[in-house]
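S.,

As promised, the calcium ion run. Input:
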Amino acid sequence: AKKQGRNGFAFFDAQMRQATEQRMQLLKDLRIAIQKQQFELYFQPIVDMASQKAVKAEALIRWQHPGKGIISPAVFIPLAEETQLILEIGEFIFASACRTQKKLMSAKHQVQLSINVSPIQFSSKHSRLVDWKTHLDELSLNAEQFVIEITEGLMMNAQQRTQSRLNQLSKQGFALALDDFGTGYSSLAYLKQMDTDFIKIDKRFVDGIADSADDLALCEAMIMMAHQLGLKVIAEGIETEAQHKQLLAAGCDYGQGYYYAKPMPEKVYLDFMNNATYG
Ligand code: C2E
Ligand code: CA
Ligand code: CA
Ligand code: CA
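Predicted complex:
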């Protein structure tokens, strides 16, 4: 039995080492990716539920790895956050979204672009978030043309710097959205603390609404409460017509999900917008 245990331990040890090596390799690749600009923003339309016009879009980052193909942000964003590389990636995201906004304007599309901003970009001394408004001024863009998506993780243990940057962005005219609403702790308390414009109902609530009375009731309650607080609601991960209809009936303002459109490269997104049905 002793021998077996030792073998088991050796096996676990090898697994640990392999995981660490994979992480180190990914980090090495991530540094190269920044230098070689292997990132690209995809855009997923967000529709006005009543008219189904694509009046907003969320920018979602993709990493085109030369050997491994597209790597999901769910994999590399956490690593980028742990290593502060998110600060540089975050600047790329903003600059890139600005360029797309200019193209949308040239094509006469009025779209509010959502950008995901990491808590690190709020808390770090080295973050250039504070210069974004200046960059917009230089490009003749307005802060009102952008939504900053933040998660509840931002507000947990939020330091003074985070809170003041949040206030500053809001004062500058950026809209704020609380992402993955309802999945974290004390979501409601945070709503009071910050000047939110939108809440985004998480996909896991939307998933069940067609066949679970509880999930439908939860969505209805979130929508009602948001409206009473003067906020608009975006439902995420809408995949079926049934979900669309139920959320529309519940008074949800905006919808995002495969039912309407998947995230797409900028060029495809601009073509999508130029199509008379959506633009
Ligand atoms: P998120 O901000 O909650 O983004 C929504 C995710 O849901 C996206 O996954 C999107 O592709 C996916 N999605 C949208 N509609 C549907 C649907 O109908 N069905 C299903 N199954 N999925 C749907 P994605 O692009 O893989 O991003 C995953 C997460 O990575 C994001 O979650 C966000 O937390 C993070 N992320 C993505 N882009 C960025 C970025 O530019 N900056 C930062 N800081 N984080 C990002
Ligand atoms: Ca988001
Ligand atoms: Ca506002
Ligand atoms: Ca979300």
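The CA atoms of residues 103 and 270 lie 8 Å apart. Residues 44, 59-61, 72-74, 77, 93, 116, 118, 179-180, 237-239, 256-258, 263 surround C2E (ligand 1) (CB under 6 Å).

- D.
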